[in-house]
Sequence to fold (158 residues):
Amino acid sequence: MTKLRAGIAVVGGVVTVVLAEVPADPSLPISILSDSSWTLQTGDRGPALALLHQRCANFFKQHSADLVIVKASAVPQGGSVKLAVLESAEVRGVVIAAAASATRVTCLQKALICRTYGERKVDEYLKDDAFWSAQATGEKLKKTSREAAMLVLATRGS
Fold:
């Protein structure tokens, strides 16, 4: 049975959402249904986050994904946390809450993918055009969206 999954990666005020059909047979590629980016509006942060929440909740109510996988926060290497990291965490929290209002949500750390999926590091998969040609069909997947799609691939057995 085919599953409908979404992968979400948040970087700064940009939310990348990849919606894909995942076949039960793991040897078959996933089929990308949509690859979109939502940008947080400039101006007052509260209303901008509220609008993002509504957009995300509406998207998942319309598309009925079985599972949404959000790239989890990670502690930055090399010292103190900067304001941009905290602001990204705010956006991530809004997206998690909005998606959870419509479907099941899980967060997945990039470091965990390295230990549970394949033989290479995630960044090596993200750069590998041949890997993506074999693993993803359907709508054209932007290179900047591969991280969100990788979340779907890494959880396809669950």
